[in-house]
Specification:
Strand content: 25-35%
Distance between the termini: 28 Å
Helix content: 40-55%
Structural class: alpha/beta
Largest sheet: 7 strands, mixed
Number of strands: 9
Shape: globular
Radius of gyration: 17 Å
Strand order of the largest sheet: 3-2-1-4-5-9-8
């Protein structure tokens, strides 16, 4: 075995171990806090005009594609954004790592479809989605796992399909040991728009739009900073 092969194998093994730990801790944290989270974190209506605007623009562009199809709200939590996407005319469904979050979403929105699943390994066919929304659901993902996640986004998107990623802007790793009224073990990554864009482009997705805005009253009250949004498209023509 060559030195390069050995190094690559060690890197892949480390990434796999990191991914397993991150998925386990994130699932446990949101299973613990699911009920409280659904009560504390409000829907977008009336409080986040910029978020609503970019969701609306995303929905408009997805509907404009000739081969419009379903849109997955990945890391959907209690289903607030899934419901918003449906109101905007998209065939939206939600996927979340936490079984208890999925239960909350199904309770709140019995007319919508919600499934358990991981963004690092989706139970979806290649090219089956017209769009993906990851609404602050990548903020717990370690940097070495983001390429795996965004490669999965590209795999399940149809040619011309789009991904909208919302994230916390900054250069910070914050560890939460208590949130939403519960003891937790959860990392939160704040990233620059350039860093997130670099990972999306590295996965073969072309950046189409970006927006960074100052925190609204809800975010400021919870000690948050700037909020970022990126829209990236899978090229219409397959690449070699």
């Amino acid at each position: 075995m060559t030195d390069l092969t050995t190094k690559t194998t060690k890197t892949l093994t480390k990434t796999t171990m990191t991914m397993t730990t991150y998925l386990t801790s994130t699932r446990l944290a949101y299973d613990t806090a699911a009920g409280s989270y659904a009560e504390i974190v409000p829907p977008l209506h009336g409080r986040d005009p910029y978020g609503i605007a970019i969701l609306r623009a995303f929905a408009d562009t997805v509907r404009a594609e000739e081969a419009a199809g379903p849109v997955a709200d990945l890391g959907c939590g209690p289903g607030h954004v899934t419901a918003q996407l449906r109101e905007l005319g998209l065939d939206a469904f939600g996927v979340d790592l936490s079984p208890k979050m999925v239960a909350e979403a199904r309770r709140a929105h019995p007319d919508l479809r919600f499934e358990e699943g991981s963004m690092t390994g989706l139970d979806l066919a290649d090219g089956s989605l017209a769009g993906i929304v990851a609404w602050y659901s990548t903020v717990h993902t370690p940097p070495e796992v983001l390429p795996v996640m965004f490669a999965e986004f590209r795999r399940v998107l149809a040619l011309g399909g789009r991904a909208l990623v919302a994230f916390k802007v900054g250069d910070l790793l914050r560890h939460l040991d208590h949130a939403y009224g519960h003891d937790l073990d959860l990392d939160v990554y704040w990233r620059s728009a350039d860093e997130v864009a670099g990972h999306l482009e590295g996965a073969g997705l072309a950046i189409e739009a970006r927006l960074v805005h100052e925190p609204d009253a809800f975010w400021r009250a919870n000690g948050q900073g700037q909020q970022g949004f990126l829209v990236a498209q899978k090229p219409n023509m397959p690449t070699a």
